Amino acid sequence: MSLAPRAVLVHRRTEYEELLARHGTHGQAAFFLSSRGRSIDEVVRRHDRTRQALREVAAAVPLTWRSSRVERADLDRFLFAPEDVVVVVGQDGLVANTAKYLSGQPVVGIDTDPGRNPGVLVRHRCADTAALLRAATAAGGRAEELTMVEAVADDTQRLLALNEIYLGSPGHQTARYRLGSDGEEGPGEAQASSGVLVGTGTGATGWLRSVWLERGSRAGLPAPCDRRLVWFVREAWPSPTTGTTKVAGELGRGQRLQLTVESDRIVVFGDGMESDALELTWGQSVRLGIAGTSLHLVT
SUPFAM superfamilies of this UniProt entry (predicted)? Predict the structure, then answer.
């Protein structure tokens, strides 16, 4: 007997909740903001809109379904099941934060603050939730398969990301490593830089785009569903022992970028989630390429 679908509502603490956690009371939080020329009123209004959105989305879950909630900080400890429909209630970045923990479950993005969020991944309003949940479980439902990037270390550690993966020093200082293509002869080019970014078409609207614009690159950025990645080395330093000939490129199906660590510690994290990172040390290597799984975003 198959289980009924489970709607998993993903959200994050609001700015108001974070202020209360830090300052203890509404009055102390208001005083803190006023001392910096800000009013707490707008912060409270955004908090109220988010809480109302969560109530509306929860009310739209069919009575025959199961439901659960998970906060962003607990995603790495939450066990998603194959029958889940994931409803991200918040900002675009929250979809990316969630994607790395999924394995093909459909995702619905609900925008809690239309006009303030770009709406690249949270494309829908609360009133659309019931119809979207039906579409997510219907045969032939409309969805986009967004390409993801993965990093696999030589000790079998694996990391997924929807936007981009960063490799570099944990303090964003100089990282030393060798960089090359998987399978090429030789150890690769020795480099010293502030890190390497490998990203997708979804990530091409964020951090990757800033590097691309700064470089004045003529390479075309991929679209979110393209099975293609782009990569950039940030601020590569030329010296007698380090080179700068491999600072950008593309990765297609079956292609991998390989990085071998030549410093005490390099971290690998995805989509800005530094708290959930791989740590590599001298001599370890990591390969990056298109992930076998995609984000199933309900449209």
Answer: NAD kinase/diacylglycerol kinase-like (SSF111331)
